Amino acid sequence: MYRLHASPDSASMAVRMVLLELGLPHELRPVDRAGGELASPDYRALHPLGLIPALETPDGTMFETAAILLWLADRAPQSGLAPAPDSAARADFLKWLFFTSTNLHPHLLNLFYPDRAAGAANAGAVTEASRARIGTLMAALEAAAARGPDWLSDRRPTLMGYYLGMLLRWLGSFPPGDPRRVELTEYPALHRVAAYMETRPAAQTVAADEGLGPLPFTEPA
Length: 221
Ligand SMILES: N[C@@H](CCC(=O)N[C@@H](CS)C(=O)NCC(=O)O)C(=O)O
Hints:
Order of helices and strands: EHEHEEHHHHHHH
Radius of gyration: 17 Å
Distance between the termini: 31 Å
Bound molecules: glutathione
Mean pLDDT: 98
CATH class of the largest domain: Mainly Alpha
Strand content: 5-15%
Largest sheet: 4 strands, mixed
Number of strands: 4
CATH architecture of the largest domain: Up-down Bundle
Shape: globular
């Protein structure tokens, strides 16, 4: 049995969707963010930085969203959520998974917490720099998606589809006119992937439970 430490509309969303997609029994453990639980010694024992998600597994506690997703997919090779370690597509898949987790995800977090990178006085500069970088990253990801790789399909579920769907949701969640906002319609291949992924029962279940709206990836509520 897995135990997922989670909070609505946070990075636990992708892990939760993949657990559901794989039909893996799991228990949700809501984190009391407002109550300061992330800073508590008990939570820091699960995640040294006090971040969501953390997943308790029979092999120990895991953190880092991409690592958790990859670990889950690798343990269910029949699911096809990710190319198997010995498949020809693995190299391409891995490089784009790490590209996403080490570039897009952190720059996106800078848009939400711009004071953390260089202090409150530099928050504006951090926001501007990260938003510009996100434009470059999105263009590269769009080109990768447009090549139609099996690991980022608009016809079947993939690990990358869930991970990117979540990140695209957040990029599209800023109000119209907000310079941080990303218009997903400007990235048609990624839009097609997100539009397919949000129809998956796993995505719909989490969206309903976490109040993310009927189109959680392409039209964030
Ligand atoms: N690199 C981490 C980032 C996790 C992360 O930043 N989680 C956010 C929620 S989406 C969080 O816990 N924020 C609470 C905080 O920063 O205080 C991962 O991929 O798991």
